[in-house]
Amino acid sequence: MENKTLHISPMPHVKRGLGVNKIMLDIIIALIPAVCAGIYFYKGDAAKILLATVLASLVAEALWNKFVKKTNWLTDLSPIVSGIILGLIMPTYVPLWIPIVGSIFATIVVKQFFGGLGQNFMNPEAATKAFLITSWAAVMAKPVVDSTTAASGAVEKTLTLWNQILGQASGSIGEVSILALLIGGVYLLVRGVISFRAPATFIVASFVMHSVLGKEGLLTGAFFLAAIFMATDYATTPMTKSGQYLFGLVAGICASIIAVLGYNPDGPYYAIIIINLFTPLIEYYTSKRVKIKKEAA
What we know:
- Keywords: Flavoprotein, FMN, Membrane, Phosphoprotein, Translocase, Transmembrane, Transmembrane helix, Transport.
- InterPro entries: NqrB/RnfD.
- This is Electron transport complex protein RnfD.
- The structure is a single chain.
- With about 300 residues, the protein is mostly helical.
- It has two domains: about 20-145 and about 160-175, no CATH class; about 195-285, no CATH class.
- It has helices at about 20-65, 80-90, 95-110, 125-135, 135-140, 145-150, 160-165, 180-190, 195-210, 220-230, 240-260, 265-275, 280-285.
- Helix 1 (about 20-65) packs across helix 3 (about 95-110).
- It is globular, with a radius of gyration of 20 Å.
């Protein structure tokens, strides 16, 4: 019998031809529409934050690899992906040190402390957003505006559905345009990087739950960003088909409850990290297990 060497590696496992760098490059391309929309609506403020998060992620990755004596200071494109997504979930009014600290936390604490790419049990960007809000709530909170500006908030309700989809200067950088996020999502679907199961279920479950809770209207960009770029994370979400449906369903319901009943616009990000904790359990109950019958000696 021919002896073959089997290479065993931890999950996630990807299809042949979909190398890590190819996947990361596709995600970067998919994020470009959201980046462009964010810079269009928030101008230089958005560009500075995105540049800070990407550079800080790269430097943090390089320093960590040097610390653990890895030969390559940058092993893949994942720090760039993480930096872009983290920048997109940042509001533009925060001081620049906030996204820099967030990038270091996401790269070192959430990712590298647990073994690096593919070994983290929680989405790094969503976990970082929760960490920053918890640690510096006053800084992350939207500044108090004067009465004139506050009164203009009523104008947002008169926006047409098309304006809400196309884009508006509301929320974090990457949440301004649902259309831009959907373009990125379609690109990833066509490229075979993600499946429709978790994102579609997440959005549908969130919309239905919003209606049940009496909240009418279109979901915010945060729901679409979380559904497309976080609910599809290979390392922190189920790999089984039924598991992906279940993850999207529970995360979507949780996101709406937090956003509506908790009055928290960052509900989708909290929902992602909460359900991330149940991913091993979901994977266990949705995996096909082969029973081996022991024969009597």
